Amino acid sequence: MSPWLKRGTAGVALALAAATAAAADLLDMPLESLLQYEVEGASRFVQPLTEAPSAVAVVSAEDIRRYGYRNLGEALQSLRGVYVTDQRDYSYIGIRGFSRPGDYNARMLLLADGVRRNDPLYDTAQIGHDAPLDMDWIKQLEFAPGPASALYGANAIFGVANAVLWSGADLDGSRVTAELGSGDAARLSWLAGRRGAEGGGWVLGIAAYRRGGADIYYPEFDAPGVGDGWARGRDGERTLKGFAKLDRGNWRFDASFSARRKNVPTADYGTLFDTPGNFYHDQYAYAGISHSQTLAPDWTGKLHLRAGRYDFAGEYVYAGLLNRDETLATWWGLDYLLTYTGRKNHKLLIGAEAQRNVHLDQRNFDVEPAAGHFADARSGNAVSLFVQDEWRIDRRWMTNLGLRADRVAGGRALSPRAALIFHPLPEVALKLMHGRACRPPNSYERYYNDGNVVQKANPDLQPERIATDELTADYALSPRLRLAGSYYHYRMDNLIEQVTDPADGLAVFVNRPTLHAHGVELEAESLLGDGLRIRGSLARQRVQQDFGTAVNSPQWMGKLHVDGPLGQTGWTLAFAWRSLGAREGAAARVPGQAVANLVATRMRRGEAGAWSVGLYNLSGKRHLDPAAGSLTQLALPQDGRQLRATWSLAY
Question: Does residue 166 lie within any of the structural domains?
Fold first, then answer.
């Protein structure tokens, strides 16, 4: 080994030792100190968690490693009030009792380093393996529930998830990770970063994943002339993702891409069951450049230019017919943010955003025999202005007031938000919040049809609106015990939902009447001796509407997380349990479920690397998720017991 390589290896080993010690220090940190954890997504600037105008929760990189979260959805559903539904094509997030078929996660905003990643055609926040982010790239995942449209616009109705990505200054080394798992799953990733001479740096990452998929039994297709109910080898998936970030002085450049092909085993939209060729293909590309500058002693400005592209293709096999959907969205945008701190105890943000949607194209056609059914090519502009003022009235009281005006293709929207935050004691934070948001219908909801075979358009859709009131409390009762709770109420008007028109049997998006929801969330976290940590939460919510029972809306959720070292072996154990109440599906009621996972991790210094072994769904029971209305199945069985082994080496 050459001398420079020896020195580099020794330096990385020391850095790893320091990182491991820092993680241990974090786990031993008093809980009142953890309440000062800094977050950025709630207010578009860095602030302590207790001062954010939302009940913000954080999933750290250490949590991701210890609990073996494999995608954004798994990490988010570890938080109170959040659940995920897997339709075997995409994963759909539910927040505070709300998740609807055809939603495509359009009511949650996904950010990476504070920048929007939802596409402008479906408004999708991708959270499964289709997400444009790999879990190895994430330093911290923040989730701020409640409407944040006062800062971010239409998609931030039920919450904002912000993935803070690693920088070169954080890493200053390289890491390769390999893993194998059940269902013929395999993953390989490489992540490297270097610290710059003046505090900047660069990061590069690439990740590839494949899964053959298990055989799945659907009793609805166990019939003569149809099949024996088994979809054999039809659930496979392949992804490839890349990421780059460069910080130099006041400049930052970042770019990413992702490509995913998912075979669909569910015979969606009446396609042939257990037949090859039914698949979805997603491609996402993004690039952005930003510049920050001090304009005057009390003024700073940040300019950000971004561009993106999203491609979707879906193929559907019918008897004697191959049908295809194609979608293309391309866009570029310009954001400018001014921060003023010249007025005592105030922090004022003034921002403007402009986005040009160059292509919002959809078409549906038959490949064999060739025939066109639908083609729609559109473009559009969106312009927004927003302002936010954080006022620290005194050492105990502060307010956060925001207002945003949007002009989009679907019309105009005004979104306000107000929060009053009170610290009666340093270890107590009380927040009273009110927010309103408006989401115009997107191009898919308004214009898509497949030749009126399965789905038809509704260009007369109106924007949906939500108003939310919330009271939260966070109390570090002692250095090792923290309690938290939230009570909220929200009202939605003109809800956009996909239904089946009884007149012709076609799926169509319509506006629904008003619905109301109330909910309570409770959480406790405790640090016990010898590094043992316990966190549990209970959520109770009820959605009331005049147009039938709310679908995919559990009335309660319970979660428990326990992790800590396994004696003096060098291993840590992490146990996660979650439970959901019964839910109504589009065609049948789905019973409640309880799922437990166990992950063992060993961090080793030197050349041996780190090991992790995860056992998911310990009981092996295939619980059910509600099926969308486009499926024949009444409910969808999920994966049974799964095993995953991971090896990671830093060098």
Answer: yes
Q: Is the peptide bond before 369 cis (omega within 30 degrees of 0)?
A: yes
- Of 141, 82, 84, residue with least CA distance to 117: 141
Output the domain CATH number for residue 361: 2.40.170.20
Beta bridge partners of 254: 245, 288
Radius of gyration of the chain (CA): 24
Q: Which residues lie below 8 Å from residue 394, measured CB to CB, with a gap of 6+?
A: none
Asked if residue 358 lies in contact with residue 331, where contact means CB atoms within 8 angstroms, the answer is yes
Q: How many Å apart are CA 146 and CA 503, to the nearest integer?
A: 37
Total domains present in the chain? 1
Closest CA to 90 of 651, 506, 518, 628: 628
Spell out a b/e string for 236-270, using b for 16 or more CB atoms within 10 Å of the CB, else e: bbbbebbbebbbeeeebebebbbbbbbbbbbbbbe
* pLDDT confidence bin for 214, thresholds 50/70/90: confident
Model's pTM, two decimal places? 0.92
> Alpha-carbon distance 382 to 28, whole Å?
47
Q: What is the pLDDT of residues 565-577, one digit of tens each?
A: 998 888 999 999 9
Q: Per the domain annotation, does 461 fall within a domain? A: no
Per residue in 555-606, pLDDT (tens digit) is 999 999 999 999 888 899 999 999 999 999 888 899 999 999 999 999 775 5
Residue of 122, 132, 102, 112 lying closest to 312 (CA atoms): 122
> Residue 65: CB partners within 8 Å, gap ≥ 6?
601, 612
Is 617 contained in some domain?
Answer: yes
Domain that holds residue 339: 3-453+479-514+526-642
Residue 434 falls within a domain, yes or no?
yes
Q: What angle do CA 605, 609, 612 make, to 5 degrees?
A: 115
pLDDT surpasses 70 at 30: no
